[in-house]
Amino acid sequence: MSLVEKLQAMDAIWDSLIHDNLDVKSPEWHGDILSARKKKIEEGKAEFCSIEELGNYYWDSLLSDIESLVIFAGIHPKKFGYYRMLSKRFPYAVIMTPAVILPRLSLY
What we know:
Layout: H1 3-19, H2 28-43, H3 51-67, H4 69-72, E1 78-79, E2 82-86, E3 93-96
Antiparallel strand pairs: 1-2, 2-3
């Protein structure tokens, strides 16, 4: 299977999971991790990032996903006439038309 075929298969799987009404139970180890994190908070040993840091990480992730279209544009499935790429880190999708060729995105 080529890289393009693998990415298309992954996107199809994610798309099917989004639309399926699955009643999936969290595994026990999720509860273990949550308990350990709660304990860290109660002991004052937890570290948090600020809203600004989270916003910067979100923005960097978005730009990274958009810039990846230089390599992967056109391989994503079409939804309502537009290509759609699901984000790898946050719950959003990048939507593009077939005619859009994205050069390197610059903020400056």
